[in-house]
Design a protein that fits this description.
With 430 residues, the protein is of the alpha+beta class. Helices cover 48% and strands 17% of the residues. The protein folds into 3 domains: 145 residues, GAF domain (Beta-Lactamase); 158 residues, Alpha-Beta Plaits, CATH 3.30.70; 76 residues. β11, α10 and β12 form a beta-alpha-beta unit. The N terminus is likely disordered.
């Protein structure tokens, strides 16, 4: 008798929960229909979950949270917006949490040791493209079975909300359109003038530049407004400006270092490209922004041959596939010069400024089949002097050069084909 009563009571409780859940789902649908926005939907969901809810995009920045709360350990504020710290993103990758968020279709829980709290995650998708994710912190109470259904429904509604309004499709990005179009069309000259325009657009011109061009693997993979993809990539790649140009997403980025982005940023951009089925071609480094058109053409050529490359990489660097990109016999002399490895240009400039012979030493080493003894004899220097020069070359170029020697060899051939007399030995012999 008592067991029957307990069973009856449990059934009644389950029915009450089911009814309450149904009512709250209806309220969420009404918030969606009435145009109360993402915050209105999260407000209703919070009444059921009783725990803080955060919605992030695929560049790991906060779109919305309810109630307003801060997580100083994981996030930092830049330009009035909360972005996940590099250390936090790396931690999530080590824990394979990012992989789970973007691969699992159902909500799941995960205990974050760094925060000492259990969390529930669920991705937000539009068609097959992941545009963000939900994170719920078990701060006020432990998760219950019904929470999984609530978060799953919330994910579906947020997907509709993102498609319905302009939240993801009408951000900044096109304010750069006229400037970048003129630059890529070759209609802008003068480094000082161009860099002044870059400053006016809110970006800081630095020592080195790169052009990056993004392409979807298949045209049917484009699910969002083009502005969405531009905004996401500009958020991930610091100090960049972008536009949609001749069917591709094109970015101009600038940095003091001789690499376009650091390791953490590369992880983020690779995640974004993989999730959206995209390839990104990166040009050689260049130092005068008025040359942007030439380096844009490098990326376009690389994308045009990437289908025949035996690689699944989503980030393609021109230096790594230079030979494939040079197959086209119609390449102009000025394009061949632009294809010369930036390390070679750097050594030539360094020698001119410092009256050294590092470029000549490297050229002789390559022409002697990378034989140190023969190279020293050809240069008429002692072996110890030769090894000093090679070590100095590696230091100047940022580390061991063995893996880049083939690229250097091709660049030397390009110098010759271009009729460039740079690097002829006319120095003191240091």
């Amino acid at each position: 008798m008592e067991k029957n009563l307990e069973l009856q009571e449990m059934t009644v409780e389950e029915m009450k929960t089911f009814i309450k859940l149904g009512k709250k789902k209806e309220e969420m649908f009404q918030a969606l229909q009435k145009g109360n926005g993402m915050k209105g939907i999260l407000n209703v969901a919070y009444e059921l979950l009783e725990n803080p809810i955060t919605v992030c995009d695929t560049s790991f920045s906060i779109i919305e949270n309810y109630p307003l709360h801060s997580n100083d350990k994981d996030f930092e504020i830049r330009n009035g917006k909360q972005y996940m710290k590099t250390e936090a993103v790396q931690s999530m990758h080590r824990e394979r949490l990012v992989e789970r968020i973007f691969s699992e279709t159902a909500p799941f829980t995960f205990y974050r040791d760094a925060l000492g709290v259990n969390m529930m995650y669920c991705r937000i998708s539009i068609k097959r493209s992941v545009v963000g994710y939900i994170c719920v912190l078990a701060r006020k109470r432990s998760f219950e079975t019904t929470d999984f259904e609530i978060v799953r429904t919330l994910s579906q509604m947020l997907s509709v909300e993102m498609q319905k309004n302009s939240f993801f499709t009408e951000r900044t990005g096109f304010k750069y359109e006229y400037f970048l179009t003129d630059l890529l069309d070759g209609n802008m000259v003068g480094k000082e003038f161009i860099e002044q325009r870059i400053r006016q657009l809110g970006r800081k011109p630095m020592r080195h530049y790169w052009i990056m061009t993004g392409m979807f693997e298949k045209e049917q993979d484009i699910y969002m407004n083009q502005r969405y993809y531009i905004e996401q990539m500009v958020t991930i790649i610091k100090n960049s400006i972008a536009l949609f140009y001749k069917g591709h997403i094109v970015l101009l980025t600038s940095a003091e270092a001789r690499i376009p982005f650091d390791v953490a940023e590369e992880v983020k951009i690779k995640d974004f490209l993989t999730l959206n089925r995209m390839k990104l071609a990166i040009s050689h480094q260049f130092d005068n922004p008025s040359d942007a058109q030439l380096y844009y053409q490098q990326t376009i050529r690389l994308l045009s041959v990437c289908g025949s490359l035996e690689t699944s990489a989503c980030v393609l660097r021109y230096g790594e596939y230079m030979i494939e990109s040079l197959i086209d016999p119609k390449m102009k002399k000025i394009q061949r010069k632009a294809a010369i490895h930036p390390d070679i240009k750097y050594l030539i400039a360094y020698d001119r400024e410092n009256r050294t012979e590092y470029f000549h030493t490297l050229r002789v080493y390559i022409s002697c089949g990378r034989n140190a003894l023969r190279s020293a004899e050809t240069l008429h220097i002692h072996k110890s002097t030769f090894f000093y020069r090679m070590n100095k070359i590696a230091e100047l170029l940022g580390g061991p050069i063995e893996e880049r020697l083939f690229q250097y060899e091709i660049s030397l051939r390009l110098l010759k084909l271009s009729g460039d007399k740079s690097g002829n030995s006319n120095t003191t012999g240091k």
